[in-house]
Amino acid sequence: DIESDEMSFLCVCLLLQVMEFYCESCETAMCLECTEGEHREHVTVPLRDVVEQHKAALKTQLDAIHSRLPQLTAAIDLVTEISRQLNERKNEAVTEISNTFEELERALHQRKTALITDLENICSAKQKVLQAQLSSLLQGKEHIQSSCSFTEQALSHGSATEVLLVQKQMSERVIALARHDFPERPHQNAHLDCQVETEGLRRSIQNLGVLLTTGAVAHTSVATGEGLRHAATGQHHTITVTTKDKDGELVRTGNAVLKAEIASVDGNRAAETEISDNKNGTYEVGYTLRTEGEYTFSLLLYGQPIRGSPFRLRAVKPSDVPQSPDDVKRRVKSPSGTGGHIRQKAVRRPSSMYSTTKKKENPIEDELIYRVGSRGREKGEFTNLQGISASSNGRVVVADSNNQCIQIFSNDGQFKMRFGVRGRSPGQLQRPTGVTVDMNGDIVVADYDNRWVSIFSSDGKFKNKIGAGRLMGPKGVAVDKNGHIITVDNKACCVFIFQSNGKLVTKFGGRGTSDRQFAGPHFVAVNNKNEIVVTDFHNHSVKVYSADGEFLFKFGSHGEGNGQFNAPTGVAVDANGNIIVADWGNSRIQVFDSTGSFLSYINTSADPLYGPQGLALTSDGHVAVADSGNHCFKVYRYLQ
Ligand SMILES: *[C@@H]1O[C@H](CO)[C@@H](O)[C@H](O)[C@H]1NC(C)=O
Ligand SMILES: *[C@@H]1O[C@H](CO)[C@@H](O)[C@H](O)[C@H]1NC(C)=O
Ligand SMILES: *[C@@H]1O[C@H](CO)[C@@H](O)[C@H](O)[C@H]1NC(C)=O
């Protein structure tokens, strides 16, 4: 078997020969003899050359992991400190509970003593009255009894003289006694009860004491609101912090320890911030800045910076405030998955973004900033829009496929212009699907049905067409750093790379399931390393290639889980190399890091997507997506 063969081979070498050579294919050292043996066909090199090379490589790798140690040490220290603090807090809380309840017990005891004392006092006061009454009654009774017996004695046994003597003396006394007013009716009552209403108290005691804690952590918690980055001087702004746990799940309870600080460039505190706890996991942070300038806005949750913090905040005079795209935002819910069309246009209203009233915006409802369009043929309306792109000068360019035109908007959603004559001649559009803007501002359009790529100037004048006769069905298009035009031929399952004059640089791909093949490529994006990112619709994956078409890696599989796809379409790469992918069949947008690890979803739940196609990053850092099934495009914030 292979393993023992290798062993014996190694032993022979080790015993008999000096190891002087290295086989690159087998990654093994060997003697001169063996270079002629089973390694005959392989490339062998002198061992010492390889050793130096490998040493250098290992050293580099070692340095790379070595450099991670300080970070890990810091993380260990931090987590250890949090764990220590947690125990400390627990002990403090236990002490506090004990103290509080001992105090309560003392208070209860005091109250019990006070009640009993009062009871005794009242009782003895009442008894005093009753005792006084009793003694005067008893006294009366005794008088009457003694008078009676004395008189009766005299009457039955006395002599005549005695009777006469007694008669005078007694009749006065008997008359007086007979008339005397004894206190025969009670001077007090026996009423003395104690009623202790304990039901409510018992209930209070049962619920006495709440433990305050959350699972919120800083690195997944987010802040939203224009006030994170822009402010108008003298006006009150609020932003919203939404706390999340380590898995990115929303935290639904309040009381998290949040600190907000706005500092000027020199590090001084620039404004008071007030934080209000909505008690549902969201917090409003308000502030007013007095002077124009650049500030840093730090949001610390339990002492750690939340995602994106510190934010760079710029304050300008109210008169210099740009109009807000948020005013275009609509909260109309589309019938999810029915492809219902929402009849609404991008109506602009005067800006209220910087109004002094508190901004009523629920951040976790959705991450939509605004939507534009509805089904139709007019300006600003779409029929099955496909590609979308954004220029560095703040324009959003849309390939309105079935209306056979290109429409252009400003970054805040205002219609600017459209162009396109339908037809099959050069300069005309038949089925524009992909669109991109090159470094000169020219608009490059992949026309699926005309089977070529057209180039227009930024104001819509036709300049050139490329790929005619080669392309079978170009869908997505991108321009790389060298000005090469990269288009995905969906029908041919190929990626074509052209010079801007139309000369073919290279092409790669073909129909199939291997790494260099595609089952239905749709859109393409280029990252900052000039690598080519292609969505493979029917393979449910995203494939990444070097600038000259060498396969690098791929990610994604079929499904609905995190990082899975049901037919990926639009793709864009941000300045940090994060890859944003429209997931057509799952009607969602996923964000991945530069290596294809899933990071998050863009929350589109309040106004769901329906079969999203092209996707682009606007020059102000938002994600624009062609929501084809809803015949509109939408702009979202992400990773905030
Ligand atoms: C949280 O509370 C605020 C203020 O009462 C409210 O506006 C917001 O809609 C609430 N959010 C959730 C998710 O309940
Ligand atoms: C998106 O927002 C909704 C509220 O509109 C919320 O229920 C949902 O959990 C959020 N989804 C994600 C993935 O954060
Ligand atoms: C996707 O491609 C991989 C190879 O790259 C292949 O193994 C797999 O079967 C393909 N899946 C589909 C659904 O085409």
From TrEMBL:
Its EC number is 2.3.2.27. SMART domains: BBC, BBOX, IG_FLMN. It holds the Pfam family zf-B_box. It catalyses: S-ubiquitinyl-[E2 ubiquitin-conjugating enzyme]-L-cysteine + [acceptor protein]-L-lysine = [E2 ubiquitin-conjugating enzyme]-L-cysteine + N(6)-ubiquitinyl-[acceptor protein]-L-lysine. Residues 6-47 form the B box-type domain. One of its GO terms (biological process) is protein polyubiquitination. Residues 317-360 are annotated as: Disordered. Keywords: Metal-binding, Phosphoprotein, Repeat, Signal, Transferase, Zinc, Zinc-finger. NHL repeats lie at residues 371-412, 416-459, 460-501, 505-548, 552-595, 596-639. InterPro entries: 6-blade_b-propeller_TolB-like, Bbox_C, Filamin/ABP280_repeat-like, Filamin/ABP280_rpt, Ig-like_fold, Ig_E-set, NHL_repeat, TRIM-NHL_E3_ligases. This is RING-type E3 ubiquitin transferase. CDD domains: CC_brat-like, NHL_TRIM2_like. GO terms for molecular function: ubiquitin protein ligase activity; zinc ion binding. PROSITE patterns: FILAMIN_REPEAT (PS50194), NHL (PS51125), ZF_BBOX (PS50119). Residues 1-25 form the signal peptide. Belongs to the TRIM/RBCC family. Filamin repeats lie at residues 213-315.
